From TrEMBL:
This is Blue (type 1) copper domain-containing protein. One of its GO terms (molecular function) is copper ion binding. InterPro entries: Azurin, BlueCu_1, BlueCu_1_BS, Cu-binding_ET, Cupredoxin. CDD domains: Azurin (cd13922). The lineage of its organism: unclassified sequences, metagenomes, ecological metagenomes. The keyword S-adenosyl-L-methionine does not apply. The keyword Nucleotide-binding does not apply. Residues 32-150 form the Blue (type 1) copper domain. Keywords: Copper, Electron transport, Metal-binding, Transport. Coiled coil: none annotated.
Length: 150
């Protein structure tokens, strides 16, 4: 009986170890980007390691409302034209400026306003260089950069 209980306790700790694996935490690509009231990201280049989960946080360190100065992070698939995509996105106001049923996007965050932040987790696409933009109307001209998977 005691041995049985010991087994369950052991099993419990093993599964705890698997589900909350802290060593995996070191294996995560942790990215924090800030955006502001001046229509800017703080970086135009993000580099991540292939095969490792990306945990990306977008912060809006400005004060303006999401309706006026909303920002998001949109990672575009290879060979997607930024201008063409952004023009379509600009019309998708009801869908957080992401074209409905778009197959041009790898991943995107919520649209946020001043003082807010949002986090997404995803597995990076295959090794290569991708474009990221903010899809709020008109922002892509200044808010864009390269997302490099190596
Ligand atoms: Cu923006």
């Amino acid at each position: 009986m005691k041995i049985m209980r010991f087994k369950y306790v052991l099993l419990f700790f093993i599964s705890l170890c698997i589900f909350t694996n802290c060593s995996i935490e070191n294996d995560v690509n942790k990215i924090v980007i800030t955006s502001d009231d001046y229509m800017k990201f703080n970086t135009s280049k993000i580099t991540v390691k292939s095969g490792k989960l990306v945990k990306l946080t977008l912060k809006h360190i400005g004060r303006l409302d999401v309706q006026v100065m909303g920002h998001n992070f949109v990672l575009l698939k290879d060979k997607v034209d930024i201008v063409e995509f952004a023009n379509k996105a600009a019309m998708a106001s009801k869908n957080q400026y992401i074209p409905v049923e778009s197959n041009e996007v790898i991943v995107y965050t919520d649209m946020i306003g001043g003082g807010q932040e949002t986090t997404i987790e995803f597995l990076p696409p295959e090794v290569g260089v991708y474009n990221f933009i903010c899809s709020f109307p008109g922002h892509y001209a200044m808010m864009k950069g390269k997302f490099i998977v190596e």
